[in-house]
Amino acid sequence: MARRTAAPPSVAALITRLEGLEQRVLQLETGRVGPGDGRAAVAKRTRTVRRCPGCGLPLRRRNGRCAACKRPLDSI
Q: How many CB atoms are closer than 10 A to CB 33?
């Protein structure tokens, strides 16, 4: 048996779909998409973590040095 292909969408249906897509893109660009959507812009973190200039890991001081790479932190 030959398979039937779906009928192509009408021009009105394409225009409606295009308007919806433009609206979604506008929401993404302005960051107004609801939380948990997965497509929203990443919210800025309020708390920034200080990082070691030597290894780049979150800074944990021990005896005036970075606990991970042992770089002196006198100037930080």
A: 15
